[in-house]
């Protein structure tokens, strides 16, 4: 009995739905992905084997190799309050419009006495040319004032969460006295814990930390 030959049909797959889903996913990830905050200046941080990620809403103090200090207020929900607080406590005389303009700046890297002129300048100073927040003189360590305003705004909230947000990122070439002045700024505001940003590296095989990680 002869075999019955089935007619061959061309395979036609409608890719329209799949393309729609692919573009929807692509659009979602583009819009939902949080961009990495811009850095003030490139700094070469020390290395460590710690792998704990820094929080998104962080208050970052950056120390450059030449000893300048910059502040980034990453918690947008509190940033304006901190600026208003230091404007009030240090009697800077900034108007509400000037505070709003200041709130749009990503970095703080000027002495308080120069902020008003900076906000009203036709050609604002770029971060690379800023002198930084004064910290070299222990009698005029303006980082103390900034941390005080941060502490004032976060008063009454979970202080453990605040300590997790406080980050210090210093270049390898930064001299210890400058780092010590940053520590004093925290200490004078009764903040005794903060985190140091480092470059993560793998745990050396055979080390004590490596063996402990295997056991855990």
Task: Explain what the structure shows.
The chain is α/β, with parallel strands linked by helices. It has one domain (47-200). 40% of the residues lie in helices and 10% in strands. It contains 8 helices and 6 strands; from the N terminus they run H-E-E-E-H-H-H-H-H-E-H-E-E-H. It has helices at 16-32, 76-89, 96-103, 112-119, 142-153, 159-165, 176-187, 208-215, and strands at residues 47-48, 59-63, 69-73, 166-170, 195-196, 199-200. It has a 4-stranded mixed sheet. Strands 1-6 form a two-stranded parallel sheet. The radius of gyration is 26 Å and the shape is elongated. The mean pLDDT is 81.
Strand-helix topology:
Elements: H1 16-32, E1 47-48, E2 59-63, E3 69-73, H2 76-89, H3 96-103, H4 112-119, H5 142-153, H6 159-165, E4 166-170, H7 176-187, E5 195-196, E6 199-200, H8 208-215
Parallel strand pairs: 1-6, 2-4, 4-5
Antiparallel strand pairs: 2-3
Distance between the termini: 71 Å
List low-pLDDT spans: none
Shape: elongated
Radius of gyration: 26 Å
- Number of helix segments? 8
Residues in helices, as a percent range: 25-40%
Strand order of the largest sheet: 3-2-4-5
How do the SSEs run, as a string of H and E? HEEEHHHHHEHEEH
- When the domains are counted, the total is 1
Query: What is the beta-strand fraction?
Result: 5-15%
Question: Overall mean pLDDT score?
Answer: 81
Q: How many extended strands?
A: 6
Largest sheet: 4 strands, mixed
* SS-based class: alpha/beta
Key traits:
216 residues, two-stranded parallel ribbon, alpha/beta, four-stranded mixed beta sheet, single chain, elongated
């Amino acid at each position: 009995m002869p075999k019955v030959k089935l007619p061959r049909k061309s395979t036609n797959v409608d890719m329209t739905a799949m393309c729609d889903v692919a573009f929807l996913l692509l659009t979602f990830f583009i819009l939902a992905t949080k961009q990495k905050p811009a850095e003030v200046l490139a700094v070469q941080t020390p290395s460590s084997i710690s792998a704990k990620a820094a929080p998104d809403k962080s208050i970052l103090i950056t120390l450059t190799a030449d000893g300048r200090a910059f502040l980034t207020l990453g918690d947008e929900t509190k940033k304006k309050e901190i600026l208003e607080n230091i404007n009030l406590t240090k009697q800077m005389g900034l108007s509400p419009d000037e505070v709003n303009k200041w709130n749009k700046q990503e970095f703080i890297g000027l002495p308080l006495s120069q902020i008003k002129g900076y906000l009203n300048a036709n050609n604002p100073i770029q971060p690379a040319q800023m002198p930084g927040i004064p910290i070299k003189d222990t009698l005029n360590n303006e980082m103390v004032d900034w941390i005080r305003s941060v502490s004032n705004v976060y008063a009454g909230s979970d202080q453990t969460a605040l300590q997790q947000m406080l980050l210090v990122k210093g270049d390898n070439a930064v001299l210890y006295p400058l780092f010590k002045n940053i520590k004093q700024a925290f200490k004078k505001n009764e903040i005794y814990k903060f985190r140091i940003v480092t470059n993560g590296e793998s745990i050396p095989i055979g080390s004590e930390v490596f063996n402990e990680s295997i056991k855990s």
